[in-house]
Amino acid sequence: MSGLQINLGPVKEPLGFIKVLEWIFAIFAFATCGGYSGKTSLILNCYNGTNASLQANFAYPFRLHQSSFDIPSSKQCHSIWNSTYYLVGDFASPAQFFVTFAVFVFLYCMAALVLYVGYLHLYRGTGKLPMIDFVITVVVSFLWLVSTSAWAKALTDIKTSTGHSITELQPCVSQTNRCQFNDIRSLGSLNVSVVIGFLNLILWAGNAWFVYKETNLHNPPAAAPPTPGNPPPHSGM
Fold it and tell me: Which residue spans adopt a coiled-coil conformation according to this UniProt entry (predicted)?
């Protein structure tokens, strides 16, 4: 039969259990990166000893060049900070690649689990589905490496652009010690997203072996028995 046949056995096996873990870690990957919003701030030393705290808000997808600092409210600072100044850098491409890929992995894991639990008889009854699953698993493993590495590099640059380098803006370098770096909201969830990305790589690379065992490459189909009406010829003396 080709209809739905619920069988929770695969979830108890490495094939399905690891897929559940991959589904969960994919959620953590796009949630920790795509849901981030933060801010960085500096203290501007104005005339007559007046100080102004200025901050710039930034969030996913980290187009920092569109994140501007506040305009100081003190009139003593207007002659120094007399324009709109932005953070430096555009890191949308690696961030969106990482998040979008994690979402697609999340959806694929759901589809694979439905196949394992409801249509295992079809999955193991043909050699095509396991082979397709194996190829996708290998490709996903490679893309986790690429996307996480690109995002890790982008996160390093984000830390630089939102850290002490903000004191290098034009109003800050016109005179010595005019600006002081104040504070930045924790980037902990972004660090976690990188760790989870590499954990996903390990999970998918390890799962490739268990998917491979389901293919005909590991278990070739048994040879057909000889037809009774055509016995094999006897060798001559």
Answer: none
Instruction: Name residue 53's beta-bridge partners.
Output: 43
pTM, whole model, 2 decimals?
0.84
Q: What is the pLDDT of residues 34-68, one digit of tens each?
A: 999 999 999 988 877 778 889 999 999 999 999 99
Domain housing 78: 9-212
DSSP string of 188-204, one letter each residue: HHHHHHHHHHHHHHHHH
User: What are the Cα distances from residue 89, in Å, to 113, 154, 155, 197?
Assistant: 40, 10, 11, 23
Indicate the number of domains in the chain.
1
Q: Cα Rg for the chain, rounded, in angstroms? A: 28
Cβ burial of 232 (10 Å; 0-12, 13-18, 19+) is exposed
C-alpha 158 chain-centroid distance: 16
In a domain, 130, yes or no: yes
Task: Report d(CA 47, CA 77) in Å as an integer.
Answer: 7
How many other β-carbons are positioned within 10 Å of the β-carbon of residue 208? 19
